[in-house]
C-alpha cells in the first residue's frame, strides 16, 4: 500500500481522535492556567504536544511472520541480553540465557534486515528473506571494548549509534549498579564515569551525593547535572526541611538530594553526557551535563520473577586521635562554671560548681574518655527487591517492589525507603506503540544535626573536653551537662529528634508513531510530584545548653510539582552510500514549589507541639514557579559508516528570563570520522590495530538555575513603624537585565582499539568556559543604592582538561575471563574575570576562608599564614612558637592557601570470572586538592587533640596551640586520597529446583580502605554539601562508613 492511500485513509479515520484531543486539550489548558498566574503568551505552543499525541494513524496489518534464531559468541557460547530488532520498525526481541530469541512481526514478503546489538559487542546486521510464516537467522557476536556500535540515549526519546556522535557519552549498565554496597544510584556511579567527581558529602544513611562533571561552572546556580528518567526531566533538589541541618552561615546545601528516591535495582542503564554537547536537546539546562536513566521494562517471553535480599552492616572506618593523656592545665572540672566579672583588667577567677577559685595553669590529674565510643555504633540494614516481568508480541509488562532500610553509624539515625514501580507497553499495530509507567517512593529518616553547627554529634565531641563521663545521669535519669554552654554529645543523640518524610511519584505516558518507514513521532508526558515533610523537636534541657536549652520545635512542608511535555519527530533515510537523520522537537516544562515553615521556642514541660511553645515565631511561606519552553532542530549526515556530521540549534525561553530577551539561542556542531571503515584500513588487515575514530564537537548551553524566579524584581518585606504595618524594600534588589549563564564547550577526541578489539583507548580534551561575562554573582552594592546586593552577570569562568579511558579484555574464554578498566582525568578550574578585584568571601560556619578571586580556582581557601624563615620553613619565635605573617602595620597578611578542586581523578577496575565464581574490585581517587579541616583546630583548642597533648607533655613549647589556633594555614591539609571503593565476590549457585532459573550469592565491601594522609575522618566529605562554591570543608560532618553487604539473588 503506498503512502498516499495510507494518508487518505488516515484522514478519514482520525476525526474522532481530533474531537477527543480538543476536549483533552481544553482540560489541560485550564489546569495550566489555574496553576500559572504568569503571562499566557506562549499558550499556542502548548497545543503542539497534544496534536501529535492524537495523530495516531491506523494502518492496515500485514503478514505475520515468526522470526527466531540463536546468538553466540566467537567461542560458540550463548550470549544473553542481545537486542534483535527489525530495522525501520519498533519490532524485536532479545536473547535469553541460552542465546535463543524469537518474536513475531507483521511485515511484507521480501527482503528485510535484522540488527543484533548489545553492550560489549559489535553490531551485526543480517538480511532475511520472508516468503512464509517463519524465518530463522543466527548471529555470531564479536567483542568490542569501545562499544562503537552501541546505541546510546542522547535525549528524551532520541538514540544514536555511538560511532555517529562527535561527543563523549559514558554508559553504565545494570550489572555495574548492583553489588556496590550502596542503595543510592549517585554513590553507585562513583569511579564509573571518567571525568566526573562524585562525592558522598556525608556519611549519614540519607546523606547527599555531589556530582561534578568537568569541574564547577557556576557560583549562584547548581553545578549538578540534569537528570532525565525514561525521557522525563526530574528534580534532584537538596531541600532542608529539618532546620537543625542548615548552615549557620546560610550558604551550604546539606541534606538528601532526591536521587536517593530511586531504586538502583530498577535501572537498566545510565548514559552520561558530560558537556555542552547536549545543548541542542536541553538548551538552558545542559551546561552541567545530563544524566539519562533508562529503567527496566518487560521483554517478550514467559513470566519472569527476579528476587533479591541482602544484609548490610555499616561501621566507622577510622577514628580520629583523641588524647587520653591523664593530665591537663588548670582545674579538673568546669561543670556549671563561669568567668568572674569582677574588677581588674585580667581574668583571674572562675567559679566551678559555684565555688570561686583562682585560675590555674598547673598540671592536674584527670580521667579522659573517648566519646567516639558513645556516639558511634555498627549500623545494620537490609535491601529487598522483587520484580515480575514478561510479555507477548503485543504487550510487555514490568512490576517491581523494594524495601531498603539502613542504620547510620551515628546512633539513632536511619533511612527507610519503599519503592513500587510499574511499566506497561502496548503495541497497537505495526505503527503505534503506547507505554506508560508509574514509580512511587515513600521514605522516612531519623537524623541528627549534620555539620556546620557546634551541636552536631561530631562537633559536640570535638568541642567538649573529654574529662567528663557523658553517660552520667542525675537522680531523675537526665544526662548531666559538660562544659558551660555546651551540649552533652549524648544529649544530641538521645534528645534531639529530627525526622524527614518524603512521598514521591514519577509517572509518564509515551506514544510512539511510525507511520512510514524512516519517520517516527514520539510524545512524552511526564510528571514528577513529591512532598517533603520535616519535623524537629528538642525538649527542655535540665541544664544550661548551647542550643535551645528551653526547648524548640519546628515543622516544614515542601511540595514540588514538575510537568513535562516533549514531542520529537525524526526522519531517517539512506540514499545510496549516504544517510540522513533529521530530528525536530519541542519541550514545555512547568514547575511549582511551595514551602511552609513553623517554629516555636521555650516549650512547656511535657508539651512537644508548636502550640505549646511560649515563643511562637511568625510562620513563613514560599511560592516559586517557572516555565521553560523551547524547540530544536538537529541534522545528521553520514557517508557509509565512515563520516558523520551533525548540526543543531535550539531556542529556549523561560518566564525567569528578562521580558525583552525572553528566548536564547543554543547551537551545536559535531563530527565523527571512523577511519577503520575506510578501504585502505581494511586492506591493511592489521589485527594489532583494530579500529580508529576521530571526533570533535562544539556546543553552547545555558544554566537556568542561577536565576531565581523573582530575581528580576525588587520585593518588599512586611514590617511595622510605631505600631503601624509597613512594607520595607528588600535589601536584595531586582535586576531586569539578568540573563542565564551561557557556557561554550569544545572537545576533541579519539577512540582506538587494538589486539582484535581486546584493548580500547578513549581520549578526550575539552575547553569549557562561561562566555559573555554571563557568570552570575550577588554583587555587593553601595549603601546609596538602597540595597545590599543584586544578582548580576559580571564574570567569566573556565574549565580546561582531558580524560583518558582504557578498557581491556586480556582473557575471554568459556571458563575464565578477565576484564580491566580504568580512567585518568585532569581539570583546571579558573575564574578568568570578576567585577571585584578583592576576594569575595563566602560565608559559612567554619569561617569565611572560601573566596572567589579572579585568576584563581573557584572557592579557593584564602587566609592568613605563617611567616617563613630563610630555608622556607615556618618561622618561630625564641620559644619555638610559630609566627604569623604580618605587614609593616602589624596587620595579618593573607594569601591563597589551597584549592578544594582535585588536579587528578582516577579509577581502576578489575573483574575476574572463573566458571561460576566472579571477583571484582574498584579503586578510585582524587589527587591534588586541599581540605579545610575546621575540626582539627577545635579539638586542639579544647585540649583533646594530638598537638595539645604534646604541649601538655612538654614536647611543644607552652603557648604553641595559642600561636597556631587562629592561623588559617594550619587548618588546610592535603586532601588527596585513593580508596578501595568496591570489592565483590559472587558465586552462581547450582540449580536445585526446576522452577529456579538462576541464583547467586555475593559478598560486597565498600569504602574498605582509604590511602591518605588526612588528619580527620575522611577527606572525601564536605560540610558544604551540594554548594557550587563551598567545597572541601570538614566541619562536624558524619564520616563515610565502611560497608559490608551479603546478598542473595534468584530468578524464577
In brief:
It comes from Chitinophaga cymbidii. By secondary structure, the chain is mainly beta. It has twelve helices and 55 strands.
What does this structure look like?
Residues 164-290 form the TonB-dependent receptor plug domain. Keywords: Cell outer membrane, Membrane, Signal, Transmembrane, Transmembrane beta strand, Transmembrane helix, Transport. This is SusC/RagA family TonB-linked outer membrane protein. By secondary structure, this protein is mainly beta. The chain folds into three domains: 1-140, Immunoglobulins (Immunoglobulin-like, Sandwich); 185-316 and 378-859 and 899-929 and 975-1051, Beta Barrel (Maltoporin, Chain A), CATH 2.40.170; 332-366, no CATH class. The protein has a 22-stranded antiparallel barrel. Residues 1-61, 244-252 and 332-347 have low confidence and may be disordered.
